[in-house]
Amino acid sequence: MLMLAAAAFAQQELRPLPLVPWPAHAAIKEGSFTLNASTALVAKGREARENADYLRQALRFTGLPLNGADKPTSNAIVLRIVKPEAELGDQGYRLSVGKSEVDIEAATSAGLFYGIQTFRQLLPPATYGPTVLHGFSCEIQDVEVADRPRFGWRGMLLDVSRHFFPKEEIMKMLGTMAEHKLNFFQWHLTDDPGWRIEIKRYPNLTKVGSLQNFDTFGKPLDGQNHGGFYTQKDIREVVAYAKKLHITIVPEIEMPGHSLAAIASYHELGLWNNPAKENPWAAESSNLNTEDSTIRFYENVLDEIMKLFPSAWIHVGGDEVDKGPWQRNPRTQELKKLRNLKNEDELQSWFIRQIDGYLTSHGRRLIGWDEILEGGLAQGATVMSWRGIDGGIAAARAGHDAVMSPTSHMYLDYYQSRSKGEPRAIGGFVPLEHVYSYEPVPAVLNPEEAKHILGVQGNIWAEFIATSSHMEYMAWPRGIALSEVAWSPKETRSWQSFLPRLKDDLPRLDAEQMNYRKLDKPDLNTVINR
Question: Which of the 8 DSSP states describes residue 427?
């Protein structure tokens, strides 16, 4: 049994294998496997062959041919799809490294993919690139690994509205996520400062809404318009790449607040005293109005979003809606009365319910920040708990699924050190150890309620993150700590064992030319050496 093995292994102090996240069960055997130019790659069935193609590409820097074979030889890597079984689940795998053969087996393509990531971590970091290694050969420790994730949702968010990041950087981030078995990427595509996705029915969303000359807090930038957006062709390319990595991309289209870019593009969506103002961004509020026509507008937007993103979940934001502008707007008050709504919380809930019903009718699920609980939660909605853990608790107790993403532990745009010289952050303090210490299932939930905690997600908001290098610095290595929180059994997690394995992992990031916060910087020395 995987969990029994995990519990037994948790009692061992020495963990020499350089694996992150740590598997449910791992044991070292005597002997080693030689990976060299003679090694064959055996895969039967479509899903196994697709993973074999991925492995060849991933190991391209070894320079090894990894020729295919119909059956195992005396020196082979064998990928197998096996019959579904409860112990493996839909993402688990077994990895066995022996003297003559490496076996990776799983019940699904995703499981094989994660087994490949574990196998890759047994290889030297130089195999991650960027230079082809001529005449490469290495000895791999014989091991037995049986593994499956603790949570199904293991996510990271990137905000591209405040600052735009090119698709190449998105794909680079996805690659590193996949190597650490993270499988959900929330793409924050719209907000007040910018609308970043092409919607063909409404071209002004990018023609106007993707350009701005002010920051998140309304301060002028440098007199020049800043922006950028992804074409639908870009989106399809990124989504296809993510699919190969077994990552689900969840698009976030903000509503009914944080919508200034949309209102600047189409004035009829907003609350205006004077809609003919010279500056299209000078709306009275970033709130959408609650006209039926505005609901239709966003349904049309979502039609194109759903064609681009196969994700079961579509994120609608729903956070930080200032109710004051609605309270002061005569037309909004008239609509509230006509709909027999008691207050603005119920008005927001009405808006979310309309969108939830539309997504549900198209076989999708609405997910939003925990403010969507206010005024009553839409029937099929999933809650992302960011203002602490109370939103996740309330959702789970009401029978709704939740993803835990509290500012206290999962906001990776917060400072990771109090030392001078750190790049500017929005505030807060979430160091590496704090991320690693997080327990996603609130202790107050009973076992049945706890089943509604889908997983955990780290968020990178980009108010002060203007470059890809800065973004990577904020993401890693905290994102690696997150991966172990999300994947590994609770009883096997240990900060003392994590740090040496993390040190082994970071050269892989170096090989991939990924920027990250070094472990020998101030504020970490006392932690590492204590």
Answer: S
